[in-house]
Amino acid sequence: MGKLSDLSAAGTAVWLDFVDRKFLEEGGLEKLVEADGLTGVTSNPSIFEKAMGHGDAYDGTLAAFDKENPGAATIDRYEHLAIQDIKAAAETLKPVYDRLESKDGYVSLEVSPYIADDTDATIAEARKLWDAVDRRNLMIKIPGTPAGAPAIAATIAAGINVNVTLLFSQEDYQRVAEAYAMGLEERVRQNQPIDRIASVASFFVSRIDSKIDAKIDERVKDGDADSEALKALRGKVAIANAKLAYAWYQDFIASDRWQALAARGAQPQRLLWASTGVKDPAYPDTLYVDELIGPETVNTMPPKTMDAFRERGTVAQTLTTDVDASRHVLAEAERLGLDLDGVTGGLVEEGVASFAKAFDDLLGAIAQKQPAEA
User: Fold this and answer.
1) Contact status, residue 187 vs residue 155, Cβ threshold 8 Å
2) Is 141 a catalytic residue?
3) 3, 87, 141, 211: which is the annotated catalytic residue?
4) Which of 91, 102, 252, 369 to pair with 340, CA 20 to 30 A apart?
């Protein structure tokens, strides 16, 4: 046991932002659970595109499916492959789920990015995927778009675990946290149990700095009169934004509304730090892990970031430190016209479009594997 296990002990659960057939078959996930205390896995269209769209690891399974289902739609062929991987990951994590009494041990599968703005279609697909995987330690990923919030409430009310994805702004996060509470409250009204329902809110980090830092660099290059103040904000806005989201979370779970649910056994919707791979080589490669450590949180890392933290990460309770400084950072960002609201809104749109493009590429690659006789 090493630094990743220490990170979990400090309150930030370690999840892997990666899934791949060969990795699963060779016991890679099981090794991470045993050696590093890993407790979860996330997937998305981009991850599956990299896994399925290249190489031949899935060809045998696909050929067998095609033989039994001649003429099957490309989307059905993809779902067959994805569901097999998710089931395998869920089985590996089931002992974690049982040991932690449903508080962790989850694997996530995302609804189609094509329906990010369609509430009813999102609800229907969440139910379909939940039934197809048929594992209690599954989370259905739903984008935190305006259309996603009511879908989240309805999906939670139906007893389906939810990973809310593509959250960038504090306001969007607050909306989906309240949607989670609404779903639990509906279950209470229906006299349904709520103690084994789980959710995470995936709050994206590094992409915000990438956008803000680019604005800063451009203005500094142009000789902006506020260059020194601008440079002082480089690499700080995303972490400040995340820390203030967590401060709101702390207030929310202390509220009478949440405490009424907690009295019935409700689990808090943990903030999950996503997009934690560092994109600027000027920053430490463990930056978005080191600075966001605190109770009841998750950090989902790509393998490269996990390796970096294992070697040189620093474990300390950082999430609740310098909160006033974080408020100052965001106040300065507003004063200097960096338009954080515009950046986060644009990132949601870009995220949905990026996942849709990855899904296009993925389905295209699977379509090309279509047998000639089908």
Assistant:
1) no
2) yes
3) 141
4) 252
